[in-house]
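ok so for the tutorial part 2 we go from a plain amino acid sequence to predicted structure tokens. step 1 is just haveing the sequence, like this:
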Amino acid sequence: MKIYRYPERTEWANIIRRPALDHSGLAAKVSAILDDIRQQGDEALRRYEKQFDHVELDQFAVSATEFAEAEKLLDSELKAAIRRAARNIAHFHASQKIDDHKIETEPGVVCWQKSVGIERVGLYVPGGTAPLFSTVLMLAIPAHIAGCKERILCTPPNREGKIHPAILYAAQQSEVTGVYKLGGVQAIGAMAFGTQHVPNVYKIFGPGNQYVTMAKQLVSLKDVAIDMPAGPSEVEVIADHSTNPAFAAADFLSQAEHGSDSQSLLVTTDEAFIPLFMEQIDRQLNLLPRKELASQSLEHSKVVLLQNQKDVMDFTNAYAPEHLIIQTANYMDLATEVRNAGSVFLGPYTPESAGDYASGTNHTLPTNGYAKAYSGVNLDSFVRKITFQEISAAGLSDLGPVIEIMAQTEMLEAHKNAVSIRCAEIKENRK
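step 2 — the prediction. this is what the tokens look like for a chain of 431 residues:
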């Protein structure tokens, strides 16, 4: 892990650069798989499930029997934890609903908008190195609250053709309408194009590896919408003299253990804090079951020492972290300066893990600097806003000349005529 002491601002762009992955040839490989799925449907899905997930499937949909078996396999403590997390996530996302209301922009001209849930959404939950059942809650619960009628979930099965019971229980608690045993590119292709047994959707959500990310980007060009561009997970921890080094190191490592391409940053104005922090990193790292993955992540993680808090916040907003943890004495003051971040965790007792699981906020967040332009997944991600307007005869008589002169200036005479013909009739009726 590299330590930067008082770097010049001209060096910041290099420091905040994310780990570079070699994507040469990736698009072509993924595109070939997607084309195969588009043309051959279920036959291609079975072939790729055998190739990539090492399982031969007779059917993709999870049966009611499998859901019942999954519930029996889980201990009561985990089921209670999932239900409690689900309640908090539902509570927070339900608060994001906005009531539709009409606005009279001027007399006789009434405008309003209506939120409508996207009818079919696809939710991707990775299997990979861990069963991410929390992602089921984060995607399916707001989709249900938003009014999405069909909520399709795809996740890779194990070699026995089974899905982790916690994923199925979370799907049941979140009222997913269908779960399919599909992982990777083949899952994205199935949801984008539809096959004989997997319905197509209108928008795809969820994280994944570089193959899944590339697949989402390719299908979004002409087939289906996606939630956001995504990359490896990341965290920035802001610390000072008041920070507990054990807390900061734990947060740092909690992100590092996601994968070898994850990135963690510590930013501080207190040089004396750095050796205390590094000591805790070494101590805690050796206790982690996923030590090897975390160690690989630490190779491109960084510690940055800056002169003052203005530099800290300018650096932070330039980096635009997915997760931002502020554990300084004046964390609320610094919070007001945050402009670019996916989700922010304030104070010594707010670990990033809380947002990952059970506090209520969503953990599907923009990475790779996209927090400068994208929000994390929220209720709005699952709805469309349709605008309506109604104009009275008196309203059009008054506003009509404005529309006419604008249309005429743009040389769109039919646009002008659509107003003029109505205004003429209104004028005639008043005689």
